[in-house]
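Whether sequence alone determines local backbone shape is best considered at the level of individual chains. When preparing material for the folding task, we compiled for one chain both its residues and its backbone structure tokens. The sequence in question and its structure tokens are set out directly beneath this paragraph.
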Amino acid sequence: MVFAEDGDVAALLSRPPRPPNPLSTIPRPRVTALIDAGAAAALCIVRGPRDLGKSVALGHWAAGTRREVLWLHLTEESAAPTRFWQQLQMALGPKLLPRSPGAAGPNHPAHQLAARLGGTGQFTLVLENFYRVQDAPVQAGLLELLAHAPELNIIVAARSALDIEVEYPTITTDFHVIGPESLQFNDTEARDFHAGTDLEPVSARLNEQLNGSPVLHKSARYAALEPRRSTLGLIDDIVDKVTTSLHQRLTASQEIPHSGPLIGFMAATLPLSHFDLALARAVEPDCPDPESLLHALVEAGTLWSTTVNGTLRYSYPVIVANALTALFFEELADRRNVTLDIAAAVEFARGEYLPAFSYTVAIGDYQRSSSMLLRSGLPLLLEAHAGFAAALKTIPHTEIVKYPLLSLALGLVYNADKLTHSKGAEYLSLALTSSKLLGRALPPEERLAMNMAQAVALRMTGQFKLAAASSRTSLRDRSELPLADRDQIAPFESVALAQWGLALIFTGDFTTATAALQSAVSTAHAAEAHQTLFFATSLLAYRYALDGDLVTAADLAASALECMPVAPPAPLYEQTPLCMTLAMVELGRLQPEAAAAHLDKVLSEAATSEFWGRLRIIEAQIDLLRGHSGMAMGRLDLILAQKKELPALNPFDAAALPVTRSALLLARGNATGAAAVLGRSTSKSPPARIALARLSLSLGRPAEVVELLSTDLRQTTAVQALDAWVLLTVARLQLQDAETLQADIEKVAGAVTALGNQWPLALLPEEALELLTSAWQEHGVPLPAAPVPSEARIPASLSKVSLTPREASILATLATTPDRAEIARIHFVSLNTIKSQLRTLYKKLGVGTREDALVVAHQEHLLTG
């Protein structure tokens, strides 16, 4: 190739950046900073469709940068590669060294230019309107130039993606992309653009409607000068006028000829939320050259393109789609359902479940939508994606009642928001009703879906025992599925097993829960359902952590971490069991700070998640170990006062809450309050009997401990058995010679080590902890593997209630009548005064109701005399 001489200005077109128009542009420091950061790379690509402000942004950057900048404005003549390299030589002229007379140089123009740039200082070249010459050979030549000219950086302003963006794994040149999303107005820039006009107060909402396009905001400014129609709000009026203007521009556009193939292509792709070349070919197989049409639509700004995992993905901006829908209304009406039907099949086959589900909902094929949820393994249901929720909400009420799985999905969507809890309960109940109506008349796979929907809906509406019973029935029904069907729906089957396992955990049926969760893990592993594998393994670890076997729980938690999804990350709901497990493991090691680090990751779930009770129990236990039991008690009481606004509390956590509260009160030295909390618990409950035994031991009544724990105590967890054995052993040490208890002492130390759980030791009163530790040392018993607590959390002396004569009189009257007005009359005081005195009395007793006050009064013998 022969270059034009450097002085042949007529043949070479170069110009500086155009000065920004202050009337239609604003400074955008955010974008300028992005360009400045991108300019550090060898190649910076500023990419976006027409009229997105690329040249203006580059002009602002060039005016303010300290870099030396050369600028080449490409024209229609630049389309020929020879002409482009001539123009590039002219633009680089100030930096080129003279040619050596008669020297033979390299053949490729990029190599020739690189040879003449040697020794110059660092500088940047801006190539404006790169779309005019955006072919593969030119791009390859620029990469060669950059590879041999380290002093040069290039910024290109392009309308569509360059080849190197798609081929980036094989490109060695350092490059940076500033895509269309970065060039869009953010809300602050939209406000600045409309500052001082009627549109300023609504600029953020308008920006959302206009897709952040600077040129559409400019159209909106002009539209605001026209008379406003009284039938429309301000934003609707402006958007309608801008859409009409855009419609007219598209109709008159010369860049997009309205040919038959183009119209058919647009009619086929407009209903899609996004698509790539493969999907475009599937929905419009008769299109002769879809690549060229895509390129033309992107160049004209009608389509936007982004690169996702090395694949170009296209979408129509909403306002453009609206204008095109009006333009091609008839063609769209004929093609829409066919397009969406094909697209749903293609997207589902390649694992893009959200668009596939949305397309089937859009064409009203709800049976297929439900089946897609089932056969996909329910990732959408678990991720709670906003697009999934939006699609569900479009299903008519008269249709959704026919599909338990869809009713369940919508119920969970509404249930996740505190403002729509009641609506969520309505749809969960609807899922129950529809599943009962359909009964066993369904095919096996749909019955499996119905059973899972029923179990989850029962759980979410607080019917935990029924949910567990339904889960057991479902596990039996699962065996009726033919093996071929089970292979097809293995991902869903693993989700159902995990959900059944969770329902069983909530009722304390750990044996059946273990079987269900182990099946869930193996099924998910075989189906390569990675997200469900993580969730099921986490639940299995959680089950062992609740049981108190923290060694097994830690091993399973490590396995869950190994299979934890990274991209996209697992939703917080699915991470919650794992984080709680890790926190409980650290609590068993008496490491509150490490436990808090795990819990803090998911504590936000305590507002809406069904795990809220256990999250708050762990939080309180962490505070107890930190020595902040008073703060923990106040926070727990405040949360329990708002219990009606939270999801239903499962039976297992409901039994643990009073035990936790009593431990907090004991740690504060308040034996009366601890007794009051436990006073209404049934004596048949193992956790309550163990907590009462701890209270008796703290009060120096070892005989009561032996009486409470020596009789038949049906512990449901390993930690309950350990807790009971620790308390019973210490109580016997206080009553008899340690020599006779050698086996018991050894058993306690061995169990603590085997379970990796020091928590029962942390809740021993000070004297009891010293007694047990001394017994281990005196009798040569190996201490537990983990360090024994260095100090007791329950003090040696506990406070008892003493009442003033007035308080004693009011309490005695309270035992005879609940009527506060009558109590006030008897004591010759006003009703307000007696209300105040009752509040003081209740606080001293550590209770909140008359019934609890009387329980404490009888326990503490406050009503005698």
User: Anything to note?
Assistant: DSSP finds 46 helices and seven strands in the chain. Confidence is low (pLDDT under 50) at residues 1-15. The CA atoms of residues 724 and 797 lie 22 Å apart. Residues 329-349 form the longest helix (21 residues).
